[in-house]
Design a protein that fits this description.
alpha+beta, 6-stranded antiparallel sheet, 5-stranded antiparallel sheet, 5 helices, 31% strand
């Protein structure tokens, strides 16, 4: 479905980010919707910026795609100029300025981001809204299913999570949103960011984690 400007409208979604002791887990559903209409069942909501920094998107897809392309190119340029990888905080600040500068225009960018990454100071997650506000935390969620996801994250997050536990928590939060929010669904993208880089999980790997969650629930 398209709006008057031929931009795909992403009204409902759920994205989740969780920090663990060695990195960051990012998860997102694949449904793009406009009201009650499902515009896509294969929406890409997880976007690498560098090999250690990942964005998730919610809002207008076209706006998000333009911003991500611009930010990726700019980050590559300043990395060459400074001869070092960017800090996650620097990318969050850059994105914040861009969003805020356009907020008072006639056509502000209608997007929310989760920025997850790892740098020399450790793993980080930031949330940015369309105004440019920035918040850092140990877990984040965006989209129409985020209230449900936060219910799981807030009750089960622990600072000492290892990678497997963090993946299970992110998937549990996202799957809860899928069950309760009609605008969230149609599969899951999952990526883990570690010091050596990011890795997207294959569908069969995600399915194994989901089966383990079902087993824990049934035994509990």
């Amino acid at each position: 479905m398209v709006n008057a400007n031929n931009n795909y409208v992403l009204k409902g979604t759920t994205t989740v980010g969780v920090v663990f002791k060695d990195g960051v887990v990012i998860a997102a559903d694949k449904r793009a919707s406009a009201g009650t209409f499902i515009a896509s069942k294969m929406a890409k909501k997880v976007h690498p910026i560098t090999d250690r920094i990942i964005f998730t998107i919610s809002g207008l897809v076209a706006d998000a795609q333009i911003l991500i392309k611009w930010i990726r190119n700019y980050v590559q340029r300043i990395s060459l100029e400074r001869e070092r990888p960017p800090l996650v905080k620097e990318v969050a600040s850059l994105t914040s300025v861009l969003l805020h500068n356009n907020f008072r225009s006639l056509l502000p960018f209608m997007v929310h981001f989760i920025i997850g990454g790892i740098d020399q100071f450790g793993p980080h997650i930031y949330f940015l809204d369309h105004v440019g506000s920035v918040h850092e935390g140990k877990y984040m969620s965006t989209g129409s299913g985020s209230p449900v996801a936060y219910g799981v994250l807030e009750s089960e997050y622990r600072p000492d999570l290892d990678e497997r536990s963090a993946i299970s928590l992110a998937l549990r939060a996202l799957r809860s949103a899928i069950k309760r929010d009609a605008a969230t669904g149609d599969g899951i993208d999952l990526v883990v960011i570690r010091p050596e880089g990011y890795r997207f999980f294959k569908p069969n790997e995600i399915e194994e984690y989901l089966k383990d969650l079902d087993k824990v629930i049934s035994e509990g």
